[in-house]
Specification:
Elements lengths: L3 E5 L1 H10 L4 E7 L3 H13 L3 E5 L1 H8 L7 E6 L6 H6 L7 E6 L5 H13 L4 E5 L2 H7 L2 H7 L8 E4 L2 H10 L3 E5 L15 E6 L8 H4 L4 E3 L12 H16 L7
Parallel strand pairs: 2-3, 5-6, 5-9, 6-7, 8-9, 8-10
Antiparallel strand pairs: 1-4, 2-4
């Protein structure tokens, strides 16, 4: 039997209903947002799926969150394909950027990064396969912060780094890390068309083993008044510049 988890937040719940309706087990909605979800209630009724219009207090109990935004979905947990299967779907020569997160387990950071990745068209997000990260990825806080991004960008928990790194290199990816002391600016030279952005935890950054995989190290220019950016903000800067170079400039005028 597939695992299930709860998702709260209007954008996150709406995206699940839109993209994975078949996996929805039950919907809870408050009177305040009833009008926004009425079309989905009609479809749920037609397909004999359960939904409940509940009070704010009941929704708080059901969702186990004070920040439910008036809606909660109980949904079957999606199973991502293997990294190798994902890489096999990339067409030869097509540009792609992947976010590789090491020891980034905070659900709010994971959610914000996933939202950024969806906004800038990242091909995938790679994370640790430890239990703490898996718990964060199934949490309501992660899905609410991701604002539906988790339904758009595949997330791959990695049990081991070396096989994943080898597969990505074989697929033509270059590995990039950031450092405030790097001589090369993010905005200096063109970024490779296939890029893995390596990002570590807020406290300790990347481990030496993973940092050594980076053949490209850049700084994110700023005033210099603070040491560094939050990991989600750094991801946004990196993916925005990649998008500008490899997607925006190719758009028809």
């Amino acid at each position: 039997m597939k695992k299930e988890h709860k998702v709260t937040g209007r954008a996150a719940c709406a995206k699940i209903l839109e993209r994975r309706f078949e996996d929805v087990v039950r919907l809870y909605v408050s009177e305040d947002v009833l009008a926004d979800f009425r079309p989905w209630l009609k479809r749920l009724s037609q397909e004999k799926k359960a939904y409940h219009v509940v009070s704010e207090d009941d929704l708080r109990k059901v969702s186990e969150s004070m920040h439910h935004e008036g809606v909660c979905v109980l949904v079957r947990t999606a199973t991502a394909p293997s990294l190798e299967t994902f890489l096999s779907t990339l067409r030869p020569g097509d540009p792609a950027v992947v976010v590789y997160l090491e020891n980034v387990g905070n659900p709010h950071n994971l959610g914000a990064i996933t939202r950024v990745a969806a906004h800038f068209g990242a091909a995938a997000v790679l994370v640790d396969a430890d239990e703490a990260t898996r718990t964060s990825l199934s949490s309501a806080a992660f899905h609410r912060t991701a604002e539906g991004g988790a339904e758009i960008v595949p997330i791959f928990p990695l049990a081991a780094a070396k096989p994943a790194i080898a597969s990505l290199r074989k697929a033509g990816f270059t590995f990039l890390a950031t450092s405030s002391h790097a001589n090369r600016s993010l905005f200096g030279k063109p970024l490779p068309e296939r890029l893995v952005v390596l990002l570590g935890s807020e406290s300790s950054g990347l481990t030496a083993a993973l940092a050594n995989e980076a053949t490209l190290v850049v700084s994110i220019p700023g005033t210099g008044e603070v040491e560094s950016l939050n990991v989600a903000c750094a991801t946004s800067a990196l993916l925005c510049e990649y998008y500008r170079q490899h997607v925006w400039t190719r758009r028809p005028s």
